[in-house]
Each structure stands twice: as structure tokens, then as C-alpha cells.
Amino acid sequence: MAAAVLDLPGVTFRAAPDADHQLVIDALRGDPDAFAALVERYDRAVYHLAYRTMRDEEEAKDVTQEAFFKAYRSLKTFKPGAKFSTWIFAIAYHACCDRLNRRKRYSDEELPDRADPARGPAESVIAADEAHRLRQAIAELPEKYRTVVTLYHLQGKQYDEIATVLAIPVGTVKTHLFRAKEQLRRMLTVDNVET
Amino acid sequence: MYERDDDLDRLLFAMPLEEPPADLRASILRATIYRPAFALKPWELWLCGTAVALAVWLAVLIFRDGGAAFMHTLSVIGTIVAHVLLTQNTWLWLAAGIGAAFWLLILNPAPMPAPLFKRYARH
What we know:
The complex is a heterodimer of chains A (about 200) and B (about 120).
Chain A: H1 17-28, H2 32-54, H3 57-73, H4 84-106, H5 121-126, H6 130-140, H7 143-155, H8 159-166, H9 170-194
Helix pairs in contact in A: 1-2, 2-3, 2-4, 2-7, 3-4, 4-8, 6-9, 7-8, 7-9, 8-9
Chain B: H1 5-14, H2 24-31, H3 42-63, H4 68-86, H5 88-107, H6 114-122
């Protein structure tokens, strides 16, 4: 099995599925360090996915905790052929969906943009930064595109893995990604012209 | 510069991940591997629950109607138990069950538990 690429800035590991698999087996045998190693590998990526989906720091933190807690409790159900990253992302994504549904139920408005308040003078200076503008553009995408782009960022061009996490067909993933990129390109170009 | 797909991909993959709260990892570990184990096993909890329910039921029976309901229930239960124990069929089925269990043990002995086996193997 080839090593999975999760080689992102700020993430100092390369997640090899075989290593993950061994860690899961060790954790199931009762080795607490093995599960701690899994947490160390994926907590930042899971938090990133939760934060991008929820757009709220507190909720992203809660979702990350919930995802790892559920994973820990149902580690026995983890299928040997599956990838741990896909599994934990799927758990986190479902937790996000539950919370978003709850949020919609208690509010008549569309989902609030809580993570991106209005730009102040300091933010305007930072806005020149490429990554910051991209982050803002992603935050403005509709939820389904935002999640696909985030998972594309986390999992690379593994469309089937993204499809598994979101429980949608691979074709839909590709369509969403194409449209998301189109929107991103448009937003970033407009932003470029304005600045 | 964002017209080409590769450029946008490069920008996307170069984007750093969100910085999680400092205590996130510690709180996850506290909730999972360092979570204190519950003192009782599930079957022990069930046993305690049943015992408490029985005690409450008995207390209600004793204190209601000055214990008349309790005495009545006790006599009903006593009658049923006496009837069951005095029936020949009960003893026949009990004997058949014990006999079957005995012969199953003789013909198909259960494997020795691993730690016990190791202990014996050393000697």
C-alpha cells in the first residue's frame, strides 16, 4: 500500500496507512500510547476540517473532541482495509452535519459567518497575504463546496476518499470541486483587481 | 495567476492548517485514554439496579396497608415456589439438565484458560 500524502504546511508527519493500521491494532490491544499517536497525527487536520465546516472555533474544538471520542469508543468497528484518516474525517464530518442541522433548527437565518467578522484595519493589512485571502474565499463558499475543498486540501486528489467521507458519489465530488475552484478563482481574481 | 488549475492547487496545498487551541490534544486524551475507568462493570450496574428496584418494591409493599400487601405477596410467592418444588416434572427436568451438563463436560472438556495453562506448563 502506498504512503498516503498528508504533507501539509504545519503538519510534521507523513501518514502511512500501514503505520496507522498498526497503531489501531496496538490501541485495540490496550496500548494507550498508540491511540495518543493517532491523536497526534490527526488532531490538527480534524480540527481544520471542523473549523472550515463550522466556522466557529469553539464548535470546531467540540467537534474534534467528539470525533476522537467516538473513534476511541468504536475502534473495534474500524474496518481493516479502510484508512484511518478517511474514517476519522467521516466521523468529524457527520458530527459537523449534526451540529449544523441543530443550528439551522434553532435559527431562521442562514448559517452565520461567525468566524469571519468584519475587516478592521489590522485585518486589511493581513488581507494582502495570499493564504489569508484564500482562506477568506473558502469561507465564503457554500457549505458543500467548502467541505469538498477542505477535504481536497487535506486528502489530496484522492476523490474516492473524499466521496467516502461525504457519502456522495465520486462524480459529485468532482463536480463540486470544479465549481468550488471556479468560484474561488473568480473571488480571488476580483479581490486581486480590487487590491 | 489563478487562471491555471495547477496554480490554484499549489496555493491550496500551501495553505497552512488552522491552528488548534493549545489544550485541544490534552482534552482529547483526557476524554479518551486517560478517562478514569468506571468502577462498575455493566452487569454489576444491572445487578445493582435490579436490587434497588426490588428493595423499593418491597418497601412499598411493607409500608402500604400496614404490611398486609407484603404478607399477601409473600404468601403468593411462597405458594408458587412450593407448587413448583412439589411438582414431579420440575425435578425430572432438573435431573435431565444436570445429567446432560455432566455428560457434556465429560465428553467435551472445556480448554484450560491460557494463564492457567502456562502456569502448569512451566512445572
